[in-house]
Amino acid sequence: MATPRTAEPSLSPDLLPIHALIEAEQSAFIDKQDDTKRAGYFCAYTPPELLNAAGLRHARLFKAGDPDIVAQGERYTQSVFCDFSKSCIGGFDQKNGDPFYRAVDKLYNFHTCASMKRASELIERWVPTTLLNLPRLRDQAESRGFFRDEIVHFRNDVAELAGRSITEDDIRAQIVLFNKARQLIRKFSELRKQPIPPLSGKDFLELVRGYYYLPPEKLLPVYEKLYRKLSRAKRKGAPPVRLMISGSIVADGDRRLVELIEDEIGARVVVEDHCTGLRPFTHTLREDGDPFQALADGYLDQAPCARMKPLDDSVEFSGKLAQEYAADGVVFVYLKFCACYGVTKLEFLSHFQKLGIPVLEISSDYSQSDHGQLKTRLEAFVEILNDRRAEAVAASAAE
User: Fold this and answer.
1) Is residue 261 part of a domain?
2) Which 3 state secondary structure label does DSSP give 127?
3) Which family is annotated (predicted)?
């Protein structure tokens, strides 16, 4: 049987208290020592403002990376499902799944890709599930109105689960709280624009992890204190090779690519264009007026994933992000059989190339069998980037 992760990851000492806080919150979620209902959701387009307004314990369900859990999910699926969707299914298996997933009283999923839609339908054999619709044409007025209606349905469903009403004022108060949390995440990320960033890519992913597991009222004072400390920190030494990771989800439990880059090769991930990195924190919601429309507009206005239309918006955002953070190169990574990024990869790769940004394409899974190959490819890529940097310095000196 899978057990909750307890081993501390290779984080900076400043992040270890936050890691401990997250682990304690997860343990409380599993132990069910209170009568509060537990709600889980998969997608970054799900507004947790409503779950928090209802007083529920809630978490984004993006734990993955364990081959045993993948194997559980494979019992119910076909090989064309990505390992993340298999992990989500396997996590809910009531005999051999993940205790954190099995503690969920109700699952919510805004329909993103076909695999995750089918995964949600399979999971319903174990846990009550509500599947909501997410429009793809995000710039159309009809999409905004439709998504508002779906969010109203979401509010009603959540209120029924919690056994209490959720007023518009309740929602506005949560919008203010979550706006503060998202703004803090953005500010943490902007520290990475420094030549020698005061936090690593692993550290930033832990901050994002906290956003999805901790309620904002518990998160904010801890993050504000840490930001004050890191914003004053000065780093010395040689600036590292700067990388952006772009593509599909980097799950909680699948950090091996980032760990390879930072711990074994010595480069630094300075920004991410994926749904568990910086991308979901690019928007600020309106805090007045109709809160349902504010949620609909705000979440559709976040930096788009490749599932949204037009695809050019996603591609151009990714290129601008790499330039904004002065990335020396991009690692474009996607899970095998990913219905979004495996199909749209050529548009992203060609755009980076047009911008003159070197890019390394990686297709992977959770098998752990490709560690050596990944390390070799990443080492070669970083060496090329080091050579390019040296050539640029030499050319500048010769002018």
Assistant:
1) yes
2) coil
3) Belongs to the FldB/FldC dehydratase alpha/beta subunit family.
H-helix or E-strand containing 398? Answer: helix 371-398
User: Is 223 domain-assigned?
Assistant: no
Q: Which of 94, 101, 36 is nearest to 64 (CA)?
A: 101
Sign of CA dihedral 178, 183, 186, 188: negative
Domain count for the chain: 1
205 belongs to a structural domain: no
Question: Tokens 């890529």 appear where?
Answer: 381
Q: Which of 179, 208, 216, 169 is nearest to 52 (CA)?
A: 216
- Residue 71's domain comprises 33-176+240-398
Residue 382 lies in a domain: yes
When the pLDDT of each residue in the chain is averaged and rounded to a whole number, the result is: 94
> What confidence tens digit (pLDDT) does each residue in 364-394 have?
999 888 889 999 999 999 999 999 988 887 8
- Tally Cβ neighbours within 10 Å of residue 371: 12
Hey, what are 150's tokens?
Answer: 């779906």
Q: Classify burial at 283, counting beta carbons within 10 Å of its beta carbon; exposed 0-12, middle 13-18, buried 19 or more.
A: middle
Query: How far apart are the C-alpha atoms of 5 and 20, rounded to whole Å?
Result: 11
Cα separation of 324 and 318, whole Å? 10
CATH number at residue 128: 3.40.50.11900
Question: What are the beta bridge partners of residue 58?
Answer: 39
Give the model confidence (pLDDT) of 272-310 as tens digits. 999 999 999 999 999 999 999 999 999 999 999 999 999
What pLDDT digit, counting tens, does each position of 171-210 carry?
Answer: 999 999 999 999 999 999 999 999 999 999 999 999 999 9
Q: CA nearest 76: which of 63, 57, 95, 49? A: 95
State how far the Cα of 332 lies from the Cα of 50, in Å rounded to an integer. 33
